[in-house]
Amino acid sequence: MCLAIPAKVIRVEGASALVMIEDTEYNASLLLLDDVKAGDYVMLHAGFAIQKVDEEEAKETMRLLLEVEGFKPGQADEIH
Prior knowledge:
By secondary structure, the protein is of the alpha+beta class. The protein has one helix at residues 55-67; strands at 5-13, 16-21, 24-29, 41-45, 48-53. 21% of the residues are buried. Strand 1 and strand 2 form a beta hairpin. It has a single domain (5-70), classed as SH3 type barrels, CATH 2.30.30.140. The longest helix has 13 residues, at 55-67.
């Protein structure tokens, strides 16, 4: 099973972005998306931003993920 995690874009640098999941920062590739800017929310899978989502959807998705027993946002890069 593959899982995408919602992340907030902190900074965009070319085709890469610094994103935040809960309190942890990650580097993400933006090669699959156009027009991503700081403040946007994206779904992150295996280091790639694969879809833009609105803030409400991102927060609801994270809330649901946190209800899953054993899910830890800091391990998001290990989930694919």
